[in-house]
Write a structure and sequence with these properties.
- The chain has 282 residues and is of the alpha/beta class.
- It has one domain: P-loop containing nucleotide triphosphate hydrolases (Rossmann fold).
- It is 29% helix and 25% strand.
- The chain contains 7 helices and 12 strands.
- A hairpin with a 2-residue loop joins strand 4 and strand 5.
- Helix 4 crosses helix 5.
- The longest helix has 18 residues.
- It starts with 6 loop residues before the first helix and ends with a strand.
């Protein structure tokens, strides 16, 4: 279980960090991720199918965006094209002012390591690595940290996600919910600019699903990350700053939730407000 009020501030506070109150980020109006005319097809000839058809959108830092639509509507393909994992047939993706798909392989790898974090529906954990090693390798490769500092930071984040007693276990020995929390920790340990999550709550019960969404929401608000979440569960809509709907490879409607109502606090849970933001006290 996630621990204590204002757990996000402690989650991102490394042992060497200055102990000062964390204020909400100051957001500018310029988008940090822009897609223009994205098209992506699969197959050829009579079997050719279009997953994306001329999709354009702009995403901002400090926002949690929910990408919704029926199965086969192109949600996961759009997420993959935006996150530098799948090259579109045509169109352009600009991140931090850089044309993502004009980068060479080395530049692309550096961009993903430095700026992007991914949470996959299937966890995508290394079978031979312990939970602790899953995070250490991200910090050593992505940020160039030494082994000692990487371990200290990884232990800190896993501890805040309630995995202190499980961090030396490999994925085969973890439950589905524990594996998902390891995947969340791995995504957040390097404080990314962009967080891409494909059905991050699908393997979790509702209580744990809410914890994941609380964490992603607060990551956007307190760290200024752009968060894009693919989801089917309409209960998650209340967490979104913006809902992006897709059908047949195209955007149907971009909307902000109408007077969103947060889910009722879970049993034995209160909520604490700090600096105009609400935190779970589990």
């Amino acid at each position: 279980m996630l621990k204590s009020p204002a757990f996000l501030g402690r989650l991102f506070r490394t042992p060497a960090a200055i102990e000062s109150p964390r204020m909400p980020v100051v957001l500018d109006k310029s988008p940090v991720l822009v897609a223009e005319g994205l098209t992506r097809s699969f197959g050829s000839g009579d079997t050719k199918m279009y997953a994306l058809k001329d999709v354009s959108l702009a995403l901002h830092r400090g926002e949690l965006n929910l990408l919704m639509g029926p199965s086969g509507s192109g949600k996961s393909t759009l997420l993959a094209c935006l996150s530098a994992l799948l090259r579109p047939d045509s169109g352009r993706v600009t991140a931090h002012g850089r044309d993502v798909w004009s980068m060479n392989n080395a530049q692309m790898e550096e961009f993903r390591l430095k700026h992007c974090s991914y949470i996959f529906q299937g966890y995508n954990l290394f079978p031979a690595f312990t939970a602790l090693q899953q995070l250490e390798v991200v910090l050593q490769w992505g940020e160039g940290l030494g082994r000692r500092e990487a371990r200290k930071r990884a232990e800190h984040v896993l501890g805040q996600l309630g995995l202190s007693n499980r961090m030396h276990l490999r994925p085969a020995a973890l439950s589905g919910g524990e594996k998902q929390r390891v995947a969340i920790a791995r995504a957040l340990v390097k404080n990314p600019s962009f967080i891409f999550a494909d059905e991050p709550t699908s393997a979790l019960d509702w209580d744990n699903g809410q914890q994941v969404m609380d964490l992603l929401k607060e990551c956007a608000k307190l760290r200024g990350a752009m968060v894009l979440v693919v989801a089917h569960d309409h209960r998650l809509e209340s967490y979104a700053d913006r809902i992006i709907r897709m059908a047949d490879g195209q955007l149907v409607r971009n909307a902000s939730p109408d007077s969103p109502k947060r889910p009722e606090p879970r049993k034995n849970q209160t909520r604490v407000r700090i600096n105009e933001f609400e935190f779970a006290n589990v």
